[in-house]
Amino acid sequence: MTEEELLNLIQSHDESEILDFKENALHEADKIGEYVSALGNSALLTNNPAAYLIWGVKDITKEIVGTKFDPYLSKTSAKTNMPLINKVESFVDPKLNLSWDKFRIQEKKIVVLVIDVTHVTRPIKYSGKEFIRIGTSNKPLVSFPEKERRLWQSFEASKFELEFACVDLSFEEVQQLLDIGFYIQKRQLRDTNIEEVIDVLVNDKVLVQTGNKYNITNLGAYTLARNMKDFPQLQSRTIRVTKYAGNQPLSNAVSDRKGTMGIAVSFDNLIKSIMAQLPFTEDYSKGSRIDVPIFPQIAIRELVANALVHQDFTITGSRPFVEIFDSRIEISNPGTPLIDPRRFLDFKPKSRNDELANLLGSFHIVESRGSGIDKVVNALEIADLPAMNIKAQSAESTVVTLHGPKKFSEMSVTEKNQSIYWHACLKYVADEQINNTSLRE
What we know:
This protein has a 6-stranded mixed sheet, covered by helices on one side. The chain has 15 helices and 19 strands. The longest helix has 17 residues. It is α+β, with helices and mostly antiparallel strands. The model has no long low-confidence stretch (mean pLDDT 88). It has 3 domains: 153 residues, 2-Layer Sandwich (Methyltransferase, Cobalt-precorrin-4 Transmethylase, Domain 2), CATH 3.30.950; 74 residues, no CATH class; 205 residues, Heat Shock Protein 90, CATH 3.30.565.60. Helix content is 34%, strand content 22%. α2 packs across α3, α10 packs across α11 and α11 packs antiparallel against α13. This is Transcriptional regulator. It comes from Loigolactobacillus bifermentans DSM 20003.
């Protein structure tokens, strides 16, 4: 921003949903972070490319009075000595282009924070919470469901799933790149009626038809690719499965594999491969020895499916990950949950990738009614395993950890509390009462 552009902004605009003036107030990182979320979301909602927070200007008269605030010298506190800018930018999700500019106008210092939202594809959070401007005040977005709905709708036109992975193809070329036979089987179509197959592919947003040519969407390539090398822009987003010798990531990797086909085409084999690498116990109850994985397959299946369908495609350089250790398994995906992890069992399902969720639902890989986590909790209880641990890692990823068998005396207080909490949640959604018998068990 130039000095001329700043003066024009001050003179021609009053405080609004995308602009706020401050004098010497507002020095706290968390408060500034709330403004970033509120102003940024309002800019998205009103189709503005940026929002502005300006220090050194009176909010009504717009008189330039200057400010003592300097974002580059400010710390979050004397105790932590963390730079204010680092704190704000670390807790904003998704990562934004935030410009902290300083000017000298009329011999007075002006500070401008420019919040660039041109490439944002989901609501902006600060420290896990979303805000919106109501007039010139910041309010929690969750308190205004209609604005939240409109905000999500504004992202539809630029969704990652609907961008093109490959264009201007004949249907024969599409069949070479995508496993259409798998699709026909899963969608229970007649392979003798190609026109019907094409209609359903277009309706499912796997293909976009232009005359007698076809464009493959990212959705189609990511789910149905015969070989992900044909789609290099998507290859880095396939799931990676690593097995370690021991309980530390620093241990030697016994196995390390990345997905080579579309996630729908390879899903069943992916689960079989993970189950084969899990630690196991020996079962002689039927006479001969049977190796039984310590983690229930239904729990692994649901968590892997969730990691795939709920990943945040706007985060680059990251992918869904399964890490297998001697005593635990960690399943992670890029992006933080859209709802509080503690409400996974009773909250209505919300997906950031609706088309992906719908398509995987039609293949019976995920369930749109949101019962997956219920199955995980129930399966872990039946197997006498500790409750799952769900952790949002800053603004970048979500990690679900399953621990192997533990004696009650070996469980930490946190693990005991989590087991009680998830047991109570499971009973609640089943409209049953938690009681001493079920809790002791």
